[in-house]
Amino acid sequence: MITLQTFTIYDAPQLISKIKDQRMLLQFAGPAYHFPLTEEQLEKDLSDEKRTLFKIADQTQNIIGHAQIFLKEKTFLLGRILIWDENNRGKGYGKKVISELLKYGFAHFDKETAELNVYDWNIGAIECYRKAGFAFDPDVKSEAKIDQETWISLNMKIHKNTFELQKS
């Protein structure tokens, strides 16, 4: 079982220690953060009333990751999702985390749609989001540059009704 717990500034050192390089930070957080990740950057998110930050706990209450929800005008955005131990990837945690974030978001915010952004090369994450019911919005794309590369960020959305049907 996966649970979402409130992330506080006291949790920042653990998260910061997991972000090993600029590429990992960009994949995890998009271009808004700058490497190295700092408590000041996380404090900014914590003080943003449109953001809700979580630490992710497994069935033994071991903290295994991080996630955020960001309120937008018409939707809420799932983001900055990280299961930090690579040994925990591919075990279905991602889909459980997404489900918990959607449950929280649809229960706490008066929004009919949730969205997220994912880099086009991150096939594992894309499949996880598809299994959770997300579909691509072909009208929303962005780019991020790192080293000599351009990463294409794709947008995926899920309607509350689709999520409700998936749960039953």
From TrEMBL:
InterPro entries: Acyl_CoA_acyltransferase, GNAT_dom. It holds the Pfam family Acetyltransf_1. One of its GO terms (molecular function) is acyltransferase activity, transferring groups other than amino-acyl groups. Residues 2-157 form the N-acetyltransferase domain. Keywords: Transferase. This is Protein N-acetyltransferase, RimJ/RimL family. It comes from Chryseobacterium culicis.
